[in-house]
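Title: Prediction job returns without error message
Component: structure pipeline
Severity: low
Priority: P3
Assignee: unassigned

Description:
Job completed but the reporter wants confirmation the result is attached to the right record. Sequence as submitted:
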Amino acid sequence: MTYRFKDINKLAIPAIISGIAEPLLSLTDTAIVGNIPNDSINALAAVGIAGSFISAMVWILAQTRSAISAIIARNYGADKLGEVKTLPSQILLINVVLSLLLYVLTVYFAEEIFMLYNADGTILETAVSYYKIRAIGIPLSLIVFTLFGVFRGMQNTFWPMIIAISGAVLNIILDYVLVFGIGDWIPEMGVIGAAWASVIAQALMTLLSIVLILKKTPFRWSLGNRANPSLKELLGLSVNLFIRSASLNVALYFANAFATSYGGQSIAAQTVAFQIWLFFSFFIDGYASVANIVSGKLKGANDLQGLRSLVYSVLKIAVVIATGLSIICFVFYNYIGLLFTEDKEVLALFGKVFWIVLLMQPLNAVAFVYDGAFKGLAEAVVLRNTLIIATFFGFVPAIYIGDYFDLGLYGIWIAFTVWMCMRAGILIRIMNRRILV
């Protein structure tokens, strides 16, 4: 079977829109907070640090989305959905309990956590205040991601798109209203307002996700009398993906810790650059999700030729899209930073490294497409080992070398480039030798 551009986009475009929901919340917060009239640098730095940690938490916990998507897709392809009818409810209950526990622990130790990022003074105080509110949305995000995984397993990216659009629009509106206030009606809340805007938007997305799962899929809230036979496999996949995601977040921690140590302007510039990188990554991941969604179905149908066609077709499209995004940003290079801040020193630092962010996008596309295919094939061990190798033998040595030679933010983004090269290279080699043969 040959996958056409139209066929791929039918799944990819809704997946892109739904996939950028979480980074769009953070990106909106960054843009709004960066334009607060008073002390915007400290506010931007604090939101960057706290937002990075929240992303780390969500990514680690949300790995069950890929696991449940792979299992449901496989059963969908084999016409055996009835065998996993209790699986979503069971894993959702486990994830919610786990996320609530982590919420309590991280809020209690919030100050100590952000001190590890080298935050102090006003930046530390603001980061803690922002996090204690924004973290309310962690369990909500996990519910949304898990239910998105159910939709994806059934080859449906439309309803996640609708949910994501609803949350994003509400978040943007509330950001303006709560951060800057409206006359005497609504007081100006600053950074705290941005946190509440995100939480309220996540609550809406959670409600819509639950309603649509019940109305648009055959799944119902049913725990059953015993553990679903696929639960053990799902948890095994999730644990390996947890470890993978933890390795990923080691890289993000070091990036933010080193940027903070270089000063408030540096972490502010790093926050802007990384949020854009993250947004583009989730955008391209919409195409990678097609590999994730369909490869599981093809595996269930034992269609190796279709899998080969899928990977190569999605790869070509994703690289072209990533290249196009980079070119557009190069055209508007001197204006993009102004969307987030007007501080000249922050803009200067951002401008010095943003070109690296843009040149990485085609490379990211390659890594993400292969990553998505391996997720769909439930090859969690491969993904786990790849991230461990790329992080501890690529990123960490590179960032320390960059710091030793006083490269500043250059060193951080060189480390990110090394990291992505290793991720892409390892996955390509394994895919070509073991699967696409």
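Comment from assignee: result matches the submitted record. Residues 264-300 form the longest helix (37 residues).
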